[in-house]
Amino acid sequence: MKLRRAPLEDWLRDHYFDARIDISSSGVEPYAMTDLFRLTALEPEDLADVAFRDSRSCGAPELRAAIADRWGDRDPGRVMVTSGSGEVQYMVLTTILRPGDEVVVVEPAYHTLVGIAEAIGCKIVPWKLRWEDGFAPDLDDLAGLVTPRTRAVIANFPHNPTGIGVSPQEQSRIVEIARVHGAYLIWDSVFADMTYDHATPPNPAMSYARAISFGTLSKGLGLPGLRVGWCFAPEELIEELVVLRDYTTLALSPLVETVALHAVRGAEALLEPRMRLVRENVERVAAWVDDHEDHVGWVRPHGGAVAFPRLHGVDDEVFCDRLMRDHGVLLVPGSCFGSRGHVRLGFGVPADQLDDGLSAMSSLLRQG
Asked: Which of 253, 304, 310 minimizes the C-alpha distance to 281?
């Protein structure tokens, strides 16, 4: 199995650590350890008492239970905790997919959701979110794409990079479309806590036996560097995932699990200030787009902290390269998602940084 390069990660690897201002990232402003001491029940002595023994293959029981309580049906046996959601996505997809399987994938897609299936040798059937339709997911289109040959439907809503969401009713239809043909539904719900213009759909793994959902502390909870993700899946599948993990990372660090447990239990305290800022910042972006309607169009997002504006008559890669080189502002070109002419704009940052980043974009757009 040969994985293709991930253009998004290549771009960030080349620019992220040198940027003066980052308006590219899909999560909120990261928290520091002092913030966790202030906002959650984590105490310094909790860390001092950690023994660096091996942890369990599926995660510490208390952490699995806390995740199940908040995002699931209170059954920790259906939860596996991993090193970021990327690890569990890799394990799930390489376990359930085989060469030649048909896989319906939302497009544009985050690279792990399509690249792994491609590398396995699956036939990729794109479910396109079209700019001309306001990126609205066409469920009739999806129903026509899913057939008895479909092994899995892979989607992420709220969507990365557009920020588009689906309602609980739309999600129910997506579940039924997969159920008709017995296809797996792979549901990336890393932005589940970050909806603001839609009601948050429930975890589909709670209502459909062949649904598998992913989550993470990286996005709305502002802990990307902690590298904690998870899946909700049938227990028999988790048993298969353990076999694969025995050949890779084995388990998480108990230190990471201790911090993660308090973050999950204190999730509301971490979410509230960051999501208040996201709601304010989306209005800042809306006003900026209105002021630049000759140069920029967009579809207002429903959730997450990203939008996918279109730059009229501008090469996205050249624009993002100049923005970084001339202004130290990091933006992701749409080409990283196979969508030339667009850029991924992250607005989970402090307001002054967002204003400075948008001002630099304005300057560059005026230059033509």
From this structure: 304
Separation of alpha carbons 275 and 161, rounded Å: 18
pLDDT tens per residue, range 211-251: 999 999 999 999 999 999 999 999 999 999 999 999 999 99
Cα dist from 237 to 9, 95, 177, 314, whole Å: 29, 8, 22, 46
- pTM score > 0.70 for this model? yes
- Mean pLDDT for all residues in the chain: 97
- Order of all β-strands in the sheet with 102-107: 79-82, 229-232, 211-216, 184-188, 150-156, 102-107, 123-128
CB 173, CB 180: distance < 8 Å:
no
Q: What value does the mean pLDDT take over residues 182-197?
A: 95
**8 A C-beta contact, residue 155 and residue 123:** no
What is the distance between the terminal CA atoms of the chain, rounded to a whole angstrom?
Answer: 43
Task: Print burial letters for 31-57: b (CB count within 10 Å at least 16), e (below 16).
Answer: beeebbeebbebeeeeeeeeeeeebbb
The answer to whether 336 and 11 are in contact (CB under 8 A) is yes
Confidence of residue 322 (pLDDT cuts 50, 70, 90): very high
What backbone torsions phi and psi does residue 279 show, to the nearest 5 degrees?
-65, -40
Strand partners, 156: 188
Between 84-96 and 235-245, two packed helices, what is the crossing angle to 10 degrees?
Answer: 110
DSSP state for residue 4 in the 8-state scheme: P
The residue assigned the tokens 């995932």 is 241
Tens of pLDDT, residue by residue over 178-188, are 999 999 999 99
> Is the preceding omega at residue 108 within 30 degrees of 0, hence cis?
yes
